[in-house]
Amino acid sequence: MNYIVLDLEWNQSNTGMEAEVEHLPFEIIEIGAIKLNDDCVMTGEFSQLVKPTVYREMHHITSKLIHMQIEELEHGRPFVEVMESFLEWCGPEEYLFCTWGSSDLTELQRNMRFYELTPLSDVPIPFLDVQKLFSIAYEDRKSRRALEYAVDYLKLEKDIPFHRAFSDAYYTAKVFSHMIQQNRELLRNESYDVFHVPKRREDEVKVQFDTYAKLISREFADKTAAFADREVSSSKCYLCHRNLRKKIKWFTPNGRHYYCLAYCEKHGYLKGKIRMRKTDEGKYYVVKTTKLISDEAAEELKNRKERAKEQHKKHKHPN
After folding, report:
1. What pTM value is reported for the model?
2. Nearest-CA neighbor of 28 among 98, 90, 77, 67?
3. Would you report the helix, strand and coil content of the chain in percent, each value rounded to 5?
4. pLDDT in tens, 224-270
5. What are residue 126's DSSP bridge partners?
6. What is the CATH code for 2-188?
7. Structural domain boundaries in the chain
8. Contact between residue 42 and residue 34 where contact means Cβ atoms under 8 Å apart
9. What is the rounded CA–CA span in Å between residue 244 and residue 254?
10. 50: which DSSP letter?
11. Per-residue DSSP letters for 261-292?
12. Phi, psi for 265 (deg, rounded to 5)
């Protein structure tokens, strides 16, 4: 297994008036990557500027962040050529993408679709979010730190500037290599890029981690159809795999996130959380997580439901 540590820089519209904004809100202008082998040793590097075709003026924030002017990009190559070179560089061997954060693979695939290139996949792509791995290894699993913070925290050498695609890929690779060489169990914490939502039940993602289980469902016509699916609406203990009766049925405080509470006689309370997400085509899919929680957290969830119920009453009968 190789690891392709990827970082992108992209530009966007200064006005938001271009017709392409809806289909290509961020145009990739630089691709940087480091290849690591299974021992997390660097074996290759990739760096290429992309000549823009959509946004021909540099957004002022982008320009300040990466210290680049639009004139430099005229020396780049068209995105299609760069992408073909990049995929050839990745090689025929099995590999897994690694990124700092969760957005790079989505924007890479969005740019590929804009230029009508063959998709990387037609289902969710597993990858390693090194930013998340850092939080799992050293913090609270929820916080998300800047790349330079992680480099400083691990006391890694800073020998090139930050905020360009290659340099950020380089530092992400250094952080990743340092962590994995200390604890290879971190590799179990895969993330999934859902630019392409599962179309069939057999393509749904079902994965169990140390502290929770996750389901990424196929797409549904609407929210009602999603909740009518047994796999979506059911509660199951991810440790003993028993189907559980709910103590609190699914409720929502905001129409986007839904919660439920179930109880396993062997393992205790389990909280279910559903994030209802909409596809570009107007359909819906579900990201459901289930995790064990304490008695205190279960009581707080009960109180949260009561607060949501009261808010619903006030909204329905304001007077």
Report:
1. 0.90
2. 77
3. 35, 30, 40
4. 999 999 999 999 999 999 999 999 999 999 888 999 999 999 999 99
5. 192
6. 3.30.420.10
7. 2-188, 198-316
8. yes
9. 25
10. B
11. EEEETTTEEEEEEEEEEE-TTS-EEEEEEEEE
12. -60, -25
